[in-house]
Amino acid sequence: MPQSIAHLELNAPKAVSGVSTTRRTPTTEWTPWDLTRRLSPRDQVRVMKRDAYGRLDENSYPLIYRVGPTAPTTPWLVRMADEGGIFRLLCFDFDGKEAGVVSPDLMERAVDDCDALSGILDRLGIAHVVCQSSGTGGRHIWVALQGGASAGTVSALAGAAHANYATLDHGMLCNPREGGARPPLAPHRDGSSSTVLRGQLAGLLAPSATSSDLTALTGVLDAARPAPRPADTKPSGPIDIRYSAPRPLSTWGRGHMATVNGGSNASWTGFMCLLAAASAGWTLAEVEKESLTAPGMEHYRTKNTSRRTRKPRSPAEARARLERQWAKAQQYSALHAPLTTSQAPSDFTDLGIIVDTVEDLLTRFRVSPGRWGQSETAISQCSILTAVAYLSLQTGKRTVAASIRDLALMVGLSRDTARRALTALAADGFLVRVALAEGGNAAEWGLIPKFSTAPRTVASQPLDNPRPPSELFNLRTSLVTTLERQLTDGRHDLFTRPGLGHLAGRTYALLAQHSSLRIDTAARLLGVSTRHTATILSRLRTYRLIVKHTNGWARAKQDFRDKAARIVGVAGLLVDRARRYQAERDVWAWWQAEVTTMNAGPRRRPKGVHVSSRPLFRDTNAPGERVWPRYPRSSTQRGDHRSARELVDLGLLDPDNRWQYLGDAA
Where is the composition biased (Basic residues) (predicted)? Predict the structure, then answer.
């Protein structure tokens, strides 16, 4: 036996203690298994199991292996809590995979998220070690605890961290029984190993972080939590007051664009810049030009080197990343378009009811897939109900104003389909219409709490025991993220009725949540027959959106939805639909203004100024008010709605249009 290994064997502490009091051996002489024996809070680890062909295809650790002198022959993980449920180790796992496939965009987001959290730990003086978990580029942050921490304390920290960093896999921190991760230096099934990037491994063997430090970290993360609505978000760093956008932007958009070097999280700031530009109607060419100089778009000029520095991207890489992120920003922009002002709750009762109701709704979708997938009508109802739940969560209001056109555009359906779905959901007791549409105001809808009339079971604890505020807001953020992914993954030109259909979109979105699915499993999750599921998967495979997997079907690494939409002939359908719906709104608002003028008394009617003095404009002193030209009339002096629609379609009512419609002479 080599001398260094023998020395470790003689001085190894008991594995159940989780902390070594002997640090005579330099870290350079430690093997992965030597370090694991000193770190593991338990006297056993979990290891991978080879399949019948000797391969390690599944990322699971089903076998128990006793901690002893001999290392396992397959990769292993250590549990973070001891047998009593007290956490001795913490691992923040930042993953850049989507449906089991590495996404370059998400992986860079994971690296930025890791560095952002590492920076907070440095400011709080919490010793930690940053590792690259494998050859794919994932990140682990390890923290050892002096005296341990309770499951409740760690769970609160996990929720706060996940609310700040979307790429964080926080499930292991919420599971004191089996939550674990591969320790530093441990091998990975792909042949690589966990590599230390920053920090000292000796610090993990002599822990200094306490439960009080974790409570302070939770407080900092709660304060830094991004707002659910983009309009309420704040820059992640100092801003350059000299920055000026070439085209109009919202206040929050200008703040993100002016964030120096992208702030503390360059990838998050960069996407917020794209989202602001998409909401303001910018084009890709304008965004690409602005990305060359805007301080907040640093992410699209340089990349993180994992050494607290950044290096320039090649022009081809920068453009490809910008195009992918721009397509995603446009999807999110369409989702956020109907959002009104958010409501700051005076107490947390209403928000707690909304969160509980949405949780119950998602549970019903999961446990009763047949109800929501048995027909095309049911699938449309599921999407519309999800959209209403999303609006309620985002605004913090139990009742939201939602027009059928807004809801239809959010989920990629037609307005008639959205109208029928709303009526059916109200009849089935899932929604209640609080107010009818009137004039230019949309109808108001509200979710019915619990969706059930069954009596509640009497328990020894209070029936409505409220969550702590921080936990409530963290859960709200998590639910908003879940609903956003469901709505945006299935919203595409290709998944409209003239394309592959709405169920194909739901299937594609479902594959984002699983690394692979068999036909029977997908059918059960979708609530449809295996034959129907096979047909949908066949259509997706035809356009190379999915690929064959050892365990069924998986998403393709490259997104070919745009290409498939062009082949099918539906490219641009949702954009065209949005324009048509906006034209319908403009014609209706124009006619309502005309009706108001006709019903007003002679002295209250606006004066008929000369035709050359009647440009359209927005009154800056009264936001939202508009001076309309005279509505077109037929030869019988009745409103000519067809001509009005043609004028709107031509853009002649646009205040920025050079050739404006000036109406008939007074």
Answer: 302-313
**How many DSSP H helices and E strands does the chain contain?**
22, 18
Which residues of 73-178 form beta strands (DSSP E)?
Answer: 76-79, 87-94, 97-98, 101-102, 129-132, 139-149, 168-169
* Residues of the domain holding 103: 3-224
Name the token pair of 46. 């979990």
Contacts (Cβ under 8 Å, ≥6 apart) of 503: 373, 376, 379, 526, 528, 532, 536
Same domain, 505 and 628: no
On whether both 618 and 546 belong to a single domain, the answer is no
The count of domains in the chain is 4
555 belongs to a structural domain: yes
Residue 343 falls inside a structural domain? no
Residues 216 and 312 in one domain: no
377/502 Cα distance (integer angstroms): 10
Express each pLDDT in 615-634 by its tens digit: 444 444 444 456 677 788 88
Mean pLDDT of 107-121: 92
Query: Is the pTM higher than 0.85?
Result: no
pLDDT (tens digit per residue) in 229-256: 888 888 988 999 999 988 889 999 999 9
What single DSSP character describes residue 270? H
